[in-house]
Prior knowledge:
This protein is α/β, with parallel strands linked by helices. It has one domain: Ribonucleoside hydrolase-like (Inosine-uridine Nucleoside N-ribohydrolase, Chain A, Alpha-Beta Complex), CATH 3.90.245.10. The chain has twelve helices and ten strands.
Amino acid sequence: MPTPRKIIIDTDPGQDDAVAILLALSSPEEIEVLGITAVAGNVPLPLTQKNARIICELAGRPDVLVYAGCEAPLKRKLVTAEHVHGKTGLDGPVLADPVMQLQPGHAVDFIIETLWREAAGSVTLCPLGPLTNIAAAFLKAPDVVGRVAQIVLMGGAYFEVGNITPTAEFNIYVDPEAADIVFKSGVDLVVMPLDVTHKALTNKARVAAFRALGTKPGRMVAEWTDFFERFDMQKYGSEGAPLHDPCVIAYLIKPELFSGRHINVEIETGSELTLGMTVADWWGVTKRPANALFIGDVDADGFYALLTERIGRL
Ligand code: RIB
Ligand code: CA
């Protein structure tokens, strides 16, 4: 039995972040969550750090170390997404305030200290929101960059184009300078863009399967998706909403569900018109070196079967 992969989840919950965290915490054979670091994104930091703790308690894991990180992008004003996730960031069901405590200390310091403490090349970073915390850690302690095993992140878009502007996906758009640092860091990078997450759509049967688990986590996931999907269904006329962030965790558990290309991906940080665009050289028309496995496809049925089975364990 292989040893579980050690990860830090960096997150801005967000209903889809919540499902990703539940998937990670229900998969101890494959994943050891060393800690969860909250970042401002979908909603401001006081809410993302609170939501992260609510989700850990829902998973029956009040022992998980949750830290608050950066409350704003490196150089820009925070842009949030209450229009998608609701005022609390976890709209849908009514949730009690968490009892578990937030860890003292800053998330960026936790990331740095963990990368120094754990064996080099043994910790995977899983950013599910804007990349501010990750970039801030790399700026503060450049020597730890080489100790990161891999970064598997949700962000970007190419064929699917943007969701917050015509050219940019939200996580990258909120902090393009941070994304530029991460994409140029030289760390082994796996990117889950909208190109793949928009192929991982909920539908009535998939949400019903969550509800049919008959557990509180199953019911919460169904109610979160019921709320979260209304925005995408209205905008795209799709049958359901993309569960973006769980793609990151599902990749760690069953990478064979996904396919993509190892290509060059760079971040637009200069043009206001296309700010935050992930310029993916999918057709290899430049000589720019490949720096990311850019995922384009997923076995959606396999993805939802994994999600339902694992969340059913909680
Ligand atoms: O664009 C989708 C991404 O932005 C997801 O991670 C969602 O949670 C928001 O953070
Ligand atoms: Ca997110």
